[in-house]
Amino acid sequence: HAGCFKPRGAFYSLLSQTTLPKSVAAASGGNHGAAVAYAAQQLGVKANIFVPKSAPKAKVDRIQDFGAEVLLDGDNYAAALANCEQYIQAAGAFSIHAYDDITTITGQATVALEWLEQVDDLDTILIAVGGGGLIAGMATYIKQVTDVKIVAIEPTNSASMYQAMANATPTPVTPTSIASDSLGASLCGKNCFALAQQHVDEFICIEDEDILQAQTSLWNDYRILAELGGAAAFAALTSGKYEVSENEKIGVLICGGNTQFLG
Questions:
Q1: Where are the domains of the chain?
Q2: Are the CB atoms for 100 and 191 separated by under 8 Å?
Q3: Confidence of residue 261 (pLDDT cuts 50, 70, 90)
Q4: pTM above the 0.85 mark?
Q5: Which end of the chain has the least Cβ crowding within 10 Å, N or C?
């Protein structure tokens, strides 16, 4: 309903509480905000979503369609998050972090559970990374049940997890990729980093032109409507940045479709 995987984490965060909160707040580049808004609407909880001024109109509209109050605040995700945290302290709203809360990570892990139930003979899975919640959850679950190789894919110009791995600690970056509205964390999550460091096998960076070409290919060749961040993992394959071995069976996660892409 929210056009991406993120409602899994939002619902799990809310439903894992002993009592549902009266209000919830979240900061988002767009998709997490839509997910929290949708979960809150379904559960009868008031939602306030802080998004940067640069958030795509398609994503802001989707958040509002789910009845949440949208606060366009800050020039980037980090600024929106800071404003959201101030609001949470003042209003006492329940917080759902976009990627670094363990309940969010656990909810996202259900993508892997369902995937492996449907396809049980994969060799490799390619997963796009923003703040790291999706890959942290998926990789942690997958490595408990199988030896499938997990590959993290990030835009070169928004590579917070790649830089964290290079420096052995979460390291601030300045996201400038065209996919930064969904893959634009300036700092990967500490919990996400620790889990990815343990369970992810390879980290690859791709260029913006790779993402644009992959998005176009998904639509022209398969009629799959993907946002830029959603096309990133596929871009690693189509660009050749991920080198495929003979007879290797690969799963590619197309993780979001909130876009005004016209083909």
A1: 7-98, 105-252
A2: yes
A3: low
A4: yes
A5: C
